[in-house]
C-alpha cells in the first residue's frame, strides 16, 4: 500500500497493545518502525507509537461482512467486551463495544 491512510495513536504499552490487536482482534503487523508498529485489518491501517502520554480517545471500528463475523469477534474479545452483540436500529448495524488494554474503545460491526 502506497496510498490511503493510517491512523496513529500514542501508547504507553506498545507490546500489550500490539498483542491485543494481533492475537485477539486478528490484525497483522504491516510495518515495524523504530518505536511504532503499524497494523492492518482488512485494508484498515492503524499504528501505535511508544510514548509517555497514551492517546485513548476515539473508537477503532472494525467492519465485518455479517453477524457471524461480529459474533466471532465477540468470542475472541469476550473478556474485554462491554456488552453482547446487538442490533442498533438507529444506525442499521449489528455491533458490540470492547476495550483494548489501555482503555481505547474497540467496536465490531456489520451493516444490516
Automatic annotation (TrEMBL):
UniProt xrefs under SUPFAM superfamilies: Glyoxalase/Bleomycin resistance protein/Dihydroxybiphenyl dioxygenase (SSF54593)
Domain of life: Archaea
Signal peptide location: none
Location of the Glyoxalase/fosfomycin resistance/dioxygenase domain: 9-108
InterPro entries xrefs: Glyas_Bleomycin-R_OHBP_Dase, Glyas_Fos-R_dOase_dom
Pfam families for this protein: Glyoxalase
Protein name (database record): VOC family protein
